[in-house]
């Protein structure tokens, strides 16, 4: 898949990138086509204070084909899937599902801006797939190795030490439970196509 240049040019990433992005978000645009821009999603969202763009603004940009501006933002990544927006939407739009599809599009497009969160997500799911649960030490080791930045773990050393001291994580690298969820992950991959 072609990797996109996500450097900001003005407000978005450029017309050539916008066209490529639009091909990946067509189904999302269809999902929110009947949005009336009432702002209930923004008022309902507990994470708007962490977003650089409100959900209502994001839906407006999506409806007006400004995908480059949406993917220049990290707002959709901040969605915690609480479903408040979906439950309160007067039009009954599946806004949480739309946010999830935006996250999936960012992963599929391998956007540089979302590299860190994508690798974190992949390392997390890899640990769950292998063991049926998260093995924290292995998970974080996998994540740090995939980031290819030898200084990154140092930023987490103090937190890791405190968690170890309190017994919240264990230096367990055993490989028990391997493959318990493999069938589930394979079925999900098949359904996602």
Automatic annotation (TrEMBL):
MF (Gene Ontology): iron-sulfur cluster binding; metal ion binding
Which key words tag this protein in UniProt? Iron, Iron-sulfur, Metal-binding
Q: Which GO terms describe its cellular component?
A: plasma membrane
Q: Which domain of life is it from?
A: Bacteria
Write down a Pfam family by its short name: Fer4_9
4Fe-4S ferredoxin-type domain: residues covered = 25-56
Write the protein's name. Answer: HdlC: putative heterodisulfide reductase-like protein, subunit C
- Keyword Iron assigned: yes
